[in-house]
Structures are given as C-alpha cells and as structure tokens.
Amino acid sequence: MNTATALAAEPQDFDVKELPAPRHSRRLAVVTETYPPEVNGVAMSMARVVDELHRRNHDVQLIRPRQPTHASGANAHVDEVLTRGLPVPLYPNLRMGVPSKRALVQLWAKHRPDVVHIATEGPLGWSALQAAQHLELPVTSDYRTNFHAYGRHYKVGLFSKAILGYLRKFHNRCDATMAPTEHIRRLLADQGFERLHTVGRGVDTQRYDPARRSDLLRGEWGAGPDDLVCGYVGRLAPEKNLLAVVAAFRALLRQQPRARLVWVGDGPMRAELLARVPEAHFVGQRSGDDLATHYASLDVFLFPSLTETFGNVTTEALASGCAVAAFRSAAAGELIDSGLNGVLAQDESEAAFVAAALQTGHDLATRRRLGAGARRTALRLSWAEIVSQFETVLEDAITRREIRSALGQLRLSQS
User: Fold this and answer.
1) What is the dihedral of CA 96, 102, 104, 106, to 10 degrees?
2) CA separation (Å) from 138 to 134, 179, 378?
3) Domains of the chain
4) φ, ψ at 285 (rounded to 5°)
5) Would you give the DSSP letter of residue 92?
6) DSSP 8-state symbol, 151
7) Residue 237 DSSP symbol
8) What single string gives the DSSP state of each residue in 304-337?
9) Directed axis angle between helix 312-319 and helix 41-55, to 10°?
10) I need a surface site. Which of 135, 203, 230, 357 has the fewest CB within 10 A?
11) How many CB atoms lie within 10 A of CB 389?
C-alpha cells in the first residue's frame, strides 16, 4: 500500500496495547575495514548487524574502504561513505582503509552521529577513534581477531607483544568493547582491557538448514547417503591448524574406509594440503545458498583452529545439522556440549582433536543424534537477540558520555 492509499483508507479500530513499544531511533556511524562482497566472518556478521539496525529504524552511516568489486547501491538502505583502500598484506583479496582522521572529523562535525561503532582496529579504525575523540563522540568497538595469536604463524611472533599493546591502547580509549564470547572477555580482562561486554554472534537458520542436504552433491564426492563425509569450511591458512584435520581424516579413514573429506575455501595452504590428501575434494570458495548446501551435505564438521575470537563457521555448521569436532575455544568452547551436539577435544593437542573427531564420526546413529542436537543449539542463536544486546551496549555508552558531559558543564558553571 502506498502513502496516498494509506491516507485514504478507512481508519481501523485497534488496541494500543497491541502496538509494538516505541523504539528510540539513533544516528549510528559504523566503521569497518571489511564488508561484503568480501567473504570472511567479520564482513558477514557486520552486514547482518547493519541490516538488523536498519530494520530497527536506526539511521546507519557505513564507513568502509572502496572495494574493486563494489557495486553502487549494494547497500541502498544505509548511507555509505567509501574511503581509499589498500590490499591487506598476506590477504590480497581483502582491503584495509587508509588514515582518514581529517575527512571523518569534517564529516561528523557536519552530521554528528549519536555514537561511533568501530568493528576493526586497522588504519581506518584508528582514524575513526581519533576523530570521534576529537569531537567528543561516544565510541564502541568490537574485538574480533586474534592478531597477536596470528603473528606466530606469519613469522612476526616477536611483534606479538607490541600488537597486543596496540590493541589494548585502542580498545581502552573506547567507551565499551564487545567481546564475542565470555572466554575471550575474561582473557582480555586479564590482559588489562577495560569496559568489556560479551556480545555473541547470530546465525541465519533459514539459509543454513539441514533440509539443504544434497545426495546428488554427496554423490559427486563419491559418498552414498549413509557414508561419512567430514569437512572443513574456511581459509586454508597456517593459523587454522589444518594439519589436525588431515590427521583426523586419516584416523577416520582407518575406521571407515568409505569416509570422504571436503575442503571448502581457498588460501596459501591449498597446495600443501592437496599433496598430503590428494583423495580429498577441494571445492574452492563458496557463498550463499551454494555454501549452505555444502555445509548441509557434510556429516561432521572438523574445526581445529585455536586462533579464532568466535568462528562464525561453527554456528553455520551447527545450524546445518553438522556434528562438530573442535577445540574448547571461541564459539565452539561455549556452544558445543560434548555428546549432545558434537565433541570437544580434551586438550589442545593434535591427538586430542583426532580423538574428538573419532568420537563425533563414530557411526551413523551417533552422527545423526549429534547433528540433530547441533540444529537445536543453532535455533537459539537469533540475530535479533544479538543486535538487542548490541543496542544495549551502544545506549549505555551514549548515556555514560552524556552524564560525563553534564557533570563537566556543571563543574564549569560552579567554577
């Protein structure tokens, strides 16, 4: 119904009690150095948060680097401000913003947001933090990536302490920092990070659904309906601890000779992994419904990473009805209940991960029971609930800044 039709329509009787509670609309500036069409956990989850904020009637200004594949109007429901971007070292398909403090000060001085939320701690994120502080705007941030942990895998381990120091300095200048799990929040608190809140991640249970399971796709992998298919989804890179997947598959293969291994994703370790398990299926990077079909066609999801702050692939696998074998860290550590929806390794050794994989994929009945439990877990992880928590942190930061400003004005008037 268009506006004119709506105005001309006959008034309808309604009960005020049935109307939704009024929502306080805010002007939000969201700063991120990665966003779709880039494919990674930060990009995809930030897109869901932005969409949900818009649905809740907030005015969202999205500030991010311009991407070579950017299409005009891709985010028509938000005010996009595109900055210059450069390739990220070691991740050439990703972009990082360049220092932009002056431009952001000018932008926000003319159109002042109620709060600035910074999703990434790169050059653009640092510029946004400085600009917001210059204008005395409340700032919230996400802690999303264990850069200091990744350093061990990219020959910059000597700089891990300096990187951690930078991250602590960055987040402690914010009014609030959101950690994706309670475990990460506690670790950050022990490292001197302040004003921490736990805000998890949701999952799209309509897209990631066991109903998408495809016997045709499984047949392309050489697997029958009841054969074991285990797989990994994500970047094929050293920090993901992928040799543990190779070891787990070899152990499963000895137990179940018809087992299959599927790698979904790409990265610098592809050639090495192909040499180690030439019989595995490397299907490359997938997205959208195609990715969801690949998840749902797996039986066991092998996730050996110890460097995640969350790991969106864990929730996507759970929603797809995959039994999950993982370490007790990040999302898996909080969402996997061994014996109910997957199995957690007893310690951080490769042997423990292999043992967890053997338990998870033991037989058809076990896989089906754990997969059903995985789906039940995912159905509790709605994005609406996550963004409600996100809103609460933003409102708290705005209120605290308003109180500090009022107290400052009071002191000035009394001096």
Assistant:
1) -160
2) 11, 18, 33
3) 24-202+384-402 (3.40.50.2000), 210-378 (3.40.50.2000)
4) -75, 135
5) E
6) G
7) S
8) --SSBSS-HHHHHHHHTT-EEEE-SSHHHHHH--
9) 70
10) 135
11) 13
State the Cα–Cα distance between residues 344 and 338, nearest whole angstrom: 6
Instruction: Please give the Cα distance from 375 to 16 (Å, whole number).
Output: 37
Backbone region of residue 116 per phi and psi (left: phi > 0; alpha: psi in -120 to 50; beta: other values): beta
What tokens appear for 87 in the block?
């390739």
32-65: burial string, b at 16+ Cβ within 10 Å, e else: bbbbbebbbbbbbbbbbbbbbbbebebbbbbbbb
Per-residue pLDDT of the chain (415 residues; tens, 9 = 90+): 443 333 333 334 434 344 444 456 899 999 999 998 887 888 889 999 999 999 999 999 999 998 776 544 456 678 899 988 777 665 666 667 788 999 999 999 999 999 999 999 999 999 999 999 999 999 999 997 665 454 444 444 445 778 888 999 999 999 999 999 898 899 899 999 999 999 999 999 999 999 999 999 999 999 999 999 999 999 999 999 999 999 999 999 999 999 999 999 999 999 999 999 999 999 999 999 999 999 999 999 999 999 888 899 999 999 999 999 999 988 999 999 999 999 999 999 999 999 999 999 999 999 999 999 999 999 999 899 899 999 999 999 999 988 887 887 777 777 6
**What span, in angstroms and rounded, lies between the C-alpha atoms of 243 and 89?**
23
Token reading at 384: 């609406």
**8 Å CB contact between 193 and 166:** no
- Count the neighbouring beta carbons within 10 Å of the beta carbon of residue 286: 16
**Six-digit token string for 54:** 């818009």
In 20-153, beta strands by DSSP E: 27-31, 59-65, 79-83, 85-88, 91-97, 115-118, 139-142
The tokens for 82 are: 């595109």
The pair of structure tokens assigned to 35 is 């966003």
Tokens of 208: 């990631």
Q: Beta 91-97 vs 85-88: how paired, if at all?
A: antiparallel
